[in-house]
């Protein structure tokens, strides 16, 4: 009987891993497709009347506007995720994201519909932001709370892999349309729409996979004991506001650096300023995303052995060392050098992304954990990635060099390195609701309150 139970738990963990991987990949594909189109098409299709330079800034700003609504999505999903469960929120956010993405593919352009076209585009981007704000926290908790305490880093890698794999899919689809199916003017006329419409197929796949997964065992305990917090968000900020801010700052550098590629800036700069071929650039970004995925998985697994904080610190150092070479190599105008720059850069991204799921999950008490990880992630994305492409484009326009962009990213990396160094590594902490007293104190090294004796792990 014990062997059968062990096999059943292993099979369920594999289902959870697949569900979180597929779901987050679909969500980030949807999110990144918009960002790439903003850098390659939307400035002409929706914002052209304001002039070429300003239309590009507005187009990148439309990418960032969704981040302003991610905290609202995180508040809502965190509130209901801590009250009615992780799984229900995951299904809802998936459908909301996919529906908004598909609708973008059906939108008329400014020339066809006038000012109403960019207005609807922005509204759909806001819906994407609401969805993204709630997606990540739920996926992470489903993965980590199902996992054994000594394999949480590995389990948390699967929802983290959704971002680089979503970028692989988004770049691959854009490259396919630009280079094969709709090359030249056809891409700007209608080819860019196909990747958005393809999202409808992905919604169905993600919905089927996510509906088949059991609810998180930690939330099942919370529901059985009727220990849901009445207003999780208020409890979170009343008792753990400094922890939320530190956690948000931890994510800022990775998010800003990542949005150089996922937010469309690299693609636009490489094509319009450096003069590289659009399809070659998209292929290079697809390759870089594969390296990012590999580094994410390796560092997530490594965090189970060497601790989340240590691996995170190393990741930030690597990221700091690769920020300048990325643009130096790109500016050579040689596609091979761009590949090399992306390889180095992706290693730093993976090092600051792989351990994040487990680190965040071990920072917050069980009854408000969904709210804690979701809101911290959303605030970090505003500080880091929200307007990173817009800021980068503005810096290049004002200074005429990407060195200013590198210094901007370096400053954020230093901030994130300091922030993660303020966190106490709690790898292996019992995440059960029964151990909430220990979970509630000691996440920051500055917290000198006595830590209660841990409850023996039962999951």
Automatic annotation (TrEMBL):
Cellular-component GO terms for this entry: plasma membrane
Membrane topology: Multi-pass membrane protein
Cellular localization per UniProt: Cell membrane
UniProt-recorded Gene Ontology molecular function terms: transmembrane transporter activity
Residues of the Major facilitator superfamily (MFS) profile domain: 16-428
PROSITE patterns: MFS
Organism superkingdom: Bacteria
Transmembrane segments: 21-42, 54-77, 89-109, 115-144, 165-184, 190-209, 243-261, 281-302, 314-331, 337-354, 375-395, 407-423
Keywords in alphabetical order: Cell membrane, Membrane, Transmembrane, Transmembrane helix, Transport
PANTHER family xrefs: SHIKIMATE TRANSPORTER
Name this protein carries in UniProt: MFS family permease
Organism: Zhihengliuella flava
């Amino acid at each position: 009987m014990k062997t059968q139970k062990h096999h059943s738990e292993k099979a369920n963990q594999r289902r959870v891993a697949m569900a979180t991987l597929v779901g987050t990949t679909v969500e980030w594909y949807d999110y990144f497709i918009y960002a790439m189109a903003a850098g390659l098409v939307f400035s002409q299709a929706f914002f052209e009347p304001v002039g070429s330079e300003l239309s590009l800034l507005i187009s990148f700003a439309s990418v960032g506007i969704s981040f302003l609504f991610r905290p609202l999505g995180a508040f809502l999903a965190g509130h209901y995720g801590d009250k009615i469960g992780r799984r229900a929120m995951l299904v809802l956010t998936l459908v909301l994201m996919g529906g908004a993405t598909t609708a973008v593919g059906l939108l008329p352009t400014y020339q066809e519909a006038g000012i109403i076209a960019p207005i609807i585009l922005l509204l759909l981007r806001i819906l994407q932001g609401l969805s993204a704000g709630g997606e990540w926290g739920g996926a992470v908790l489903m993965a980590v709370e199902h996992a054994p305490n000594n394999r949480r880093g590995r389990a948390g890698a699967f929802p983290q892999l959704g971002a680089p794999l979503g970028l692989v899919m988004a770049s691959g689809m854009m490259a396919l349309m630009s280079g094969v199916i709709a090359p030249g003017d056809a891409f700007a006329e209608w080819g860019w729409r196909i990747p958005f419409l393809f999202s409808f197929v992905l919604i169905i796949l993600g919905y089927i996979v996510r509906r088949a997964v059991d609810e998180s065992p930690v939330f099942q305990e919370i529901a059985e004991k009727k220990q849901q917090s009445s207003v999780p968000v208020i409890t979170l900020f009343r008792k753990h506001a400094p922890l939320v801010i530190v956690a948000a700052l931890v994510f800022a550098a990775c998010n800003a650096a990542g949005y150089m590629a996922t937010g469309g800036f690299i693609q636009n700069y490489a094509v319009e300023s450096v003069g590289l071929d659009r399809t070659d650039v998209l292929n290079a970004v697809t390759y870089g995303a594969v390296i990012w995925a590999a580094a994410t998985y390796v560092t997530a697994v490594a965090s189970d052995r060497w601790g989340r904080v240590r691996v995170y610190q190393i990741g930030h150092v690597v990221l700091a060392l690769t920020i300048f070479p990325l643009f130096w190599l790109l500016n050579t105008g040689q596609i091979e050098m761009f590949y090399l720059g992306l390889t180095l850069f992706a290693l730093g991204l993976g090092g600051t992304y792989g351990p994040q799921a487990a680190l965040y999950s071990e920072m917050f008490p069980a009854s408000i954990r969904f709210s804690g990880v979701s809101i911290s992630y959303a605030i970090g994305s505003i500080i880091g990635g929200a307007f990173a492409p817009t800021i980068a484009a503005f810096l290049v326009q004002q200074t005429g060099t990407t060195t200013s962009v590198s210094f901007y990213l370096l400053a954020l990396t230093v901030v994130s390195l300091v922030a993660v160094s303020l966190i106490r590594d709690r790898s292996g902490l019992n995440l059960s609701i029964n151990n909430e007293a220990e979970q509630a104190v000691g996440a920051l090294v500055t917290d000198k309150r006595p830590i209660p004796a841990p409850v023996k792990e039962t999951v």
